[in-house]
Specification:
Strand content: 15-25%
Order of helices and strands: HEEEHEHEHEEEHHEEHHEHEH
Shape: globular
Radius of gyration: 20 Å
Number of helices: 10
CATH superfamily of the largest domain: ATPase, nucleotide binding domain
Largest sheet: 5 strands, mixed
Oligomer: single chain
CATH topology of the largest domain: Nucleotidyltransferase, domain 5
CATH architecture of the largest domain: 2-Layer Sandwich
Low-confidence stretches: 1-17
Number of strands: 12
CATH class of the largest domain: Alpha Beta
Bound molecules: adenosine monophosphate, magnesium ion
Mean pLDDT: 93
Amino acid sequence: MHTEQNKIFQRNIKPDKGSRDSLIYTLGIESTAHTFGVGISENDKIIANERDTLKPTSGGIIPREAAMHHFKLAPEIIKRALDKSGLKLKDIDLFAFSQGPGIIPALKVGAQVSTFLSNKYKKKLIGVNHCIAHLEIARLYTKLKDPVMLYVSGGNTQIITYYNGTYIVFGETQDIGIGNLIDKIGRRMDIPFPAGPKIEELAKKSKNYIQMPYSIKGMDVSFSGIETFVSKLIGHQSVEDISFSLQETVFSMLIEASERAMSYCLKDSLIITGGVAANKRINEMGAKMCKARNAEFKQIPMEFAGDNGAMIAYTGYLMKEYKQEDLRIKPKFRTDTVEIKYR
Ligand code: AMP
Ligand code: MG
């Protein structure tokens, strides 16, 4: 075992609270999709969170372009995070990266940059599941110990609960992620990526609900039928009415499934995390449902809703004692395949 690795473990076993030496500084890199993010944690405290998101002027995210964006910006974002934290690379005790799920060329950038840094500075490298990182940062900031978690992002939509050493996916999308649906509809209405904030703004200007397919299948949801249906409305109905009806429909589906998960698993709190958690309406619906069943709902800070490096650093810190043999990227990395040893 590396001596540096030993040092981390010793520090962890015998924390010397008074000095900076007893603290573990983790630098986490996020690069699964559109965002290159670098976060730094001091034990379980976030001290830097810098990022840049690729925003194509037309069309969606092209994998190769995302990778080029990340490679080009990596040095600058790392420097910005270090400057914010007041640290130098040599002060970092642990490097972490988003191992998956995600787009292969984009994932490779985070893996390569963090592998290079961990080798150069001879520090341990931890591969983090991106979805679990979204959950852990949400738990950190809401202080809810054992909530049902509705994870809503560009590529992922899952309802997750913790049980016996694993995060169990209780329900999920059978096709595309909710953010992806919103972005696709947005693109057809000439709204550039990411369309979520603009659709939210348009939705506020309408109260006219257009009936749409409500596709919930047991605990799972499906969005592709809604995508086809809504696409046909464009040009015939106002963008405000479409945005309002789309939000009301898909958010209701997800809150309904989340409520069932809470009831079934006897959990009395809910958090919503992922990029779509930046939306006020989905949080309002979550809060209302929780109030009705006497459960607790806490909104996560906007800064940590979308993809970010801080969540990777913090989850890397939680996983500091893991012994991982396979540090290759995992484009289809599932939330429920990770053994959770730190809870
Ligand atoms: P993530 O992949 O977790 O970074 O989430 C990105 C997704 O969040 C994109 O599909 C965005 O369109 C979506 N998003 C961001 N802000 C909002 C919002 N206010 N309302 C709905 N979706 C949003
Ligand atoms: Mg994400």
